[in-house]
Write a structure and sequence with these properties.
The protein has 467 residues and is α/β, with parallel strands linked by helices. The chain has 15 helices and 21 strands. An eight-stranded mixed beta sheet has the order 12-11-8-13-16-17-19-20, with helices on both faces. A hairpin with a 5-residue loop joins β9 and β10. α1 packs across α9 and α5 crosses α8. Bound molecules: flavin mononucleotide. The site of flavin mononucleotide has 16 residues, from α2 and α5.
């Protein structure tokens, strides 16, 4: 279901009120409406509530210091000011209203409001006498009338001071509605993830793939037309290399089969084997070898992130073709490598029942409707589908928004994440499934296809116990 703020970036400014804790719930409500939210804290707000909850829920680092630069050198409050569809300051203190009314860019919240051309929604919260003070009344009027800000007035009721009056932060649903109204009818200002504030780094995972052998393919194949020309694709290998880096960090032995890539590969070393290939045919050979037993164990999992050509020239010209009247190429379909591996695994389930866990990727343009069919047709355990026509998703980007489909019909729609975080989310599933598989093998519970019975992950799993 898409929310009323789908695709929007909202800057949430929090200032030093006792109601600052309510901003965590406001953040949750905004994200539930589909918004990408980045949080700014005034120095006082950071004393009421620390940045950790905001960072974890927003998946963005929190902007607390107006003078700190982003890790990539950009100026944080300007990036937010230029890319947010709206700013909402909630709770807004009396001090914020006064400083804002006078353009005092003393902290990240006010500096961002000053620097933006996006709509600004302000929800004040304070003691009743502060709210009714002529200074506050004048400041609110200036924000409304001179700046065009939407002010969601505080509600009446018991206040933190123990008194009663008008000053309580408005109902959060009213603040969300005001943000929705403020952006209605406006185009998304900055759909490209690269122009938005950076995403926070993924939390480190435990070494839950120690002792596992994972085969990962990355990059795009190149199918030669003649000795100097080829048919290629836009894959840069970022997703596959992120998977390899993440699997290595989690203790796996990794065979990375890399076609054409534009990112540095992990250095070969203990636990890392890198095999370079160019064509779909070479990738097929490398895959057959990598999936075979090593030290008595076949590969535990294959994650097929490479973009393999669906068609290749039927013949490669032995010498460089010269410019002539024109050229007609005859293309032949290449074999479906993942379906081949899946079919082989089904026929030759190793004696121990340790069938490799198979993960495919499907790059779709537009709808992901065909993805479930692909998962079943190829006999995969997981299919990671993404809409490569969406900004910030697909080839060459550092981020990806994917939907993970599983063989049991499950569908997990992930938000926009860094490719490293997408890699870790996929590997979370791989690690859990392998533990479940081995628990099934140990208890004699593997099914005829070598897959452990669903829901049998038990604490008695020998790997878990040994860890
Ligand atoms: C416990 C406590 C609660 C406070 N609550 C509020 C409040 O709800 N609204 C407000 O305007 N100021 C409140 N203040 C005062 C502000 O924190 C203070 O004016 C501060 O300078 C605001 O800074 P900021 O606007 O940069 O965040 C409170 C102070 C304390 C000690």
């Amino acid at each position: 279901m898409s929310g009323r703020l789908e695709g929007r970036l909202i800057g949430l400014g929090v200032t030093g009120s006792i109601a600052a804790y309510k901003a965590v719930e406001l953040l949750r409500l905004l994200t539930a409406e589909g918004a990408d939210v980045v949080v700014l804290l005034s120095p006082s707000a950071a004393r009421f509530i620390g940045p950790l909850s905001f960072a974890a829920l927003s998946r963005h680092p929190v902007e607390t210091e107006v003078l700190d630069l982003l890790p990539d050198g950009r100026i944080g409050h300007i990036v937010i000011a230029d890319s947010a569809d709206a700013l909402v300051v909630a709770p807004a203190t009396a001090h914020f209203l006064g400083a804002m009314a006078n353009g005092m860019a003393s902290d990240a919240v006010i500096a961002t409001c000053l620097a933006t051309s996006a709509p600004v929604v302000v929800a004040p919260a304070m003691d009743g006498d502060m709210w009714s003070h002529p200074a506050t009344v004048a400041n609110v009027a200036r924000l409304r009338e001179a700046f065009g800000y939407v002010v969601v007035p505080p509600a009446s009721g018991p206040l933190a001071s123990g008194q009663s009056g008008q000053g309580r932060l408005a109902e959060l649903a009213r603040i969300v509605d005001a943000v929705v109204e403020a952006v209605a009818g406006r185009p998304i200002r900055q759909p490209a993830a690269t122009a938005r504030p950076p995403l926070a780094d993924a939390p480190p995972r435990e070494a839950d793939l120690a002792g596992r052998r994972i085969v990962i393919t990355a990059g795009g194949t190149r199918e030669p037309i003649d000795p100097v020309r080829f048919i290629g694709n836009r894959s840069t290998g970022k997703m596959g290399v992120a998977l390899a880096d993440a699997a290595l960090a989690r203790g796996a032995r990794v065979t990375l089969i890399a076609a054409a890539v534009e990112v540095p590969l992990p250095p070969p070393g203990a636990g890392t084997e890198v095999v370079r290939v160019e064509t779909a045919a070479q990738l097929r050979d490398a895959l057959s070898t990598a999936m075979l037993e090593r030290d008595g164990r076949p590969a535990d999992a294959l994650v097929m992130a490479a973009a393999v050509a669906d068609f290749a020239p039927s013949r490669m010209a032995p010498t460089k073709l010269s410019r002539g009247e024109g050229l007609t190429l005859e293309l032949s379909p290449t074999p479906d490598l993942l379906a081949e591996v899946a079919a082989r695994a089904r026929v030759a389930v190793p004696a121990a029942g340790r069938r490799p866990f198979l993960v495919g990727f499907a790059a779709e343009a537009g709808s992901l409707d065909r993805a479930a069919g692909k998962l079943a047709a190829k006999g995969l355990d997981l299919l990671v589908a993404n809409d490569v026509s969406e900004a910030g998703s697909g080839f060459g980007t550092d981020t990806n928004r994917v939907t993970i489909l599983d063989a049991a019909g499950g569908r997990d729609e992930l938000p926009l994440l860094t490719k490293r975080e997408v890699a870790d989310r996929i590997l979370d599933r791989v690690a859990a499934a392998l533990d479940e598989r081995d628990a099934g093998v140990q208890t004699g519970g593997s099914t005829s296809d070598g897959r452990g019975p669903a829901g049998t992950a038990t604490p008695a799993s020998p790997r878990r116990a040994a860890r």
